[in-house]
Automatic annotation (TrEMBL):
One of its GO terms (molecular function) is DNA binding. The lineage of its organism: Bacteria, Bacillati, Bacillota, Bacilli, Bacillales. It comes from Melghirimyces algeriensis. This is Transcriptional regulator, MarR family. Keywords: DNA-binding, Transcription, Transcription regulation. The keyword Protein biosynthesis does not apply. Residues 1-133 form the HTH marR-type domain.
Length: 147
């Protein structure tokens, strides 16, 4: 049987290349796009929350947010409820590029689904959701066994 993981990994690598190419004019790294996209949907959340939701380690999240802050796309403030946490907010500069960033995500989806029918697109989305759920469930079971 052919490896599904190989193709998912290949798409993931090409996604990184695509976003790296697309980010040149904005001054951000390709990997920071997902953080901006996340914050466009949920602004004013903690770095820890972002890490958990994106399934990215805290150190990587901290570095990405720090870089976005240096570029003027986000600001970090200490949480009023937990002074140990930073809450991340988008700046006007970030809001100014929202349409462009969201368009790049839409364009990537169009590239991936080129020559797909609407039905094929819906099927692949359902299957990918199912695979992600299966992966998450497996990892959570392993983590629970190791506790």
């Amino acid at each position: 049987m052919e490896s599904i993981g190989k193709w998912i990994s290949t798409i993931h690598r090409y996604a990184h290349m695509y976003f790296a190419q697309e980010s040149e004019g904005l001054g951000i790294c390709g990997g920071q796009f997902m953080f901006l996209k996340f914050l466009y949907h949920q602004d004013g959340v903690s770095q820890e929350y972002i890490s958990k939701q994106l399934l990215i380690d805290k150190g990587t999240t901290a570095r990405a947010i720090q870089n976005l802050e240096k570029l003027g796309y986000v600001i970090r403030k200490k949480s009023q409820t937990d002074r140990r946490q930073n809450v991340v907010f988008l700046t006007e500069k970030a809001h100014g590029i929202k349409a462009e960033v969201m368009d790049k995500f839409s364009r990537w989806t169009e590239i991936l689904t080129k020559d797909f029918s609407q039905e094929e697109t819906e099927i692949i989305l359902q299957l990918l959701h199912k695979m992600a759920h299966n992966a998450m469930e497996h990892i959570q079971q392993k983590e629970n066994c190791n506790r």
